[in-house]
Every structure is written in C-alpha cells, then in structure tokens.
Amino acid sequence: AVLAAIARVARSGAFVKDGAHLEALSQAGAIVFDKTGTLTAGAPAVSKVLPAPGTSPEDLLAVLAAAESYSEHPLGEAVVEHARSLGLPVAAPEAFEYEPGLGIRARVGGRAVVAGGSALVPDVPEAAEESREGVVTPIHVDVDGAYAGTVLLADAVRGSARQAVAALRAMGLEVSMVTGDREPTARAVARQLGIDRVHAGLLPDEKMTVVDALRSQGRRVAMIGDGVNDAPALARADVGIAMGSGTDVARDSADVVLISSNLDDLVATVAVARRARRIVAFNLLGMMLAGIGLLTPILAALVHVGSETAFILNSARLIPGRVRRA
Known about the structure:
The chain has 13 helices and 13 strands. The protein has helices at 2-12, 19-26, 35-39, 57-68, 74-85, 126-130, 161-170, 183-193, 204-216, 231-236, 248-253, 263-291, 297-316; strands at residues 14-16, 30-34, 45-51, 95-99, 103-108, 111-116, 136-143, 146-154, 174-178, 197-199, 221-225, 239-243, 256-258. A seven-stranded mixed β-sheet has the order 1-13-12-11-2-9-10, with helices on both faces.
C-alpha cells in the first residue's frame, strides 16, 4: 500500500523520499506555509520606486541592482531584472554578504550599501512607510549610512493557493502562514487565502520556533516552503515539503518535493497518504483478528491481499494517461 501510494503521488507531481515520510504526512494535524514563493507565485516585480530627496529613481535602482546582483533571493533577482529592462548598468559588487531573513550588505563602487527590511535599515522616513499598501514588499536602501530610498515589489498570490488552503482545512488540518515580511503585507495575503493564523516579521530560526510550538501542543506538523530561510523549519517539522521551483537547500532539507510547485498536488498527496494509512490500519486489524482466531488464515489472506490489490489497481489507472488537475 505504501509503495503504491508513493508511486501514485509521483504520478500526481510529488516526490516522497520514503514511506516513513508518507506516514508522517498522513498523521499531520497542522500545516505551516511559507508565504513568498509558496503561497505567492515567487515571481515578484518592481511596482514602485521611492528615492530619497537628492537621489534619482535610476540611481537608486542601479545601486540596488548592483548590490543584489549576487543574490539568489527572488526579490533581489526581480530588482536586477527590472534595472536591466530599463537599460541601467548593473555592476558587480566588490563585496557581498547575505543576512538570512534581513537583507544584504554590499560594497558598490566603493560605497557601502545596505538593503532589506526596517530591521536592517531602521531610519526609514514615515512617508515611505505609509506608501506600503496591499500585497507589496519593500526593500529599503542605505548608502554610506544615509537612507537612499525604497523599492516596492509586488508578488501575485499563486493560483492554486486559495483552493488548496480550503481543501486542507476541510480535511481538518490547522493552517498557518509564516513569513519574514511585515505584518500588513502578510495579512493582505492571508485575507485573500482565508488563513487566520499569521506569523509575520520572522527570521529563519523564528519560523522553526513556530513549528516547535505546534509540536509542543501534541500536533504532527507539516511545513512547506521554497527558500533558504525555510530550511531550518523544513528540517524541524515532522514532514518538510519543498516547492520544486525552490532553492536546492530547501529541497535537500525537505522530505517531500512538489515537482510542479502546484499546491493542488499537495492536497492530492495528503489525501493519498491518508488513504494508504487507512489501508495499512485495515490490514493490521485483519492480522490481529487472524492472530486471535477470529479469521481463518485463508480469509485473513484474502482481506490483506484484496485491500492492497484494490489500491494498486486504482493507482495503476494513472499510468497510461495524463494526470488531470482540478
């Protein structure tokens, strides 16, 4: 039953590393979603450039793109792509340092550049703070110790996210969202998806703390994410799930990988895992009844083989054709 279940979810777009992880997923009572790249499409785009007085939008974008040119974060890559699309020069930084969950420090043209959230760039004018509305993420920029401006990026909610969240809640799972983004941005996404439990402004270790808190309440916890910042929480959860489009670190830390990054595949995987667990439990019950003499050996064998054969045959229906998606 377990082998058939693993084969079936593989055809549906998920890779489960072994049967123990499938069993852990079947017992999960809570699921924790990362936001960026998991619930959202992970393809942010620059929506607004807010330079400080004395700095032009082009200068702000050029220095930020140069600082971010070594970054593998989707936000940094979006800034670089936008700057290049405008024909701006993107120089390589002389130095680069990534601070997980916070932002970056770089040296560009001999200038010290710091870019990230307000925890890394604290002296952000009130006007820039008030400009952030809806599902946007700000990158504040400091050059040589002075605030240089803010670049806002928007990331669309993943098309399959709302339906997947609703389906998981219908299965009885407690759904939470964790993110390094600020509270208003996180709440805006959560409202679109029907998620009530939101933990915003988190560092990577703090995401892991959310998982630990749920586990301390006696829940089996599944965590799903896509980035370097999610790796500690993915490793700490009872079952870690990575988006196939995510980073190598996230995929290596996870127990299950959604190959297509379609959240409908997550729902299908949970459903198959639970079905496999019911079949295993049914078989164990049959063995117990046979052990105490309530089932004859022949009848026990028929119960055992019959249930597994039905599941395998049902799984085999997927082999000839394409997987249908809702």
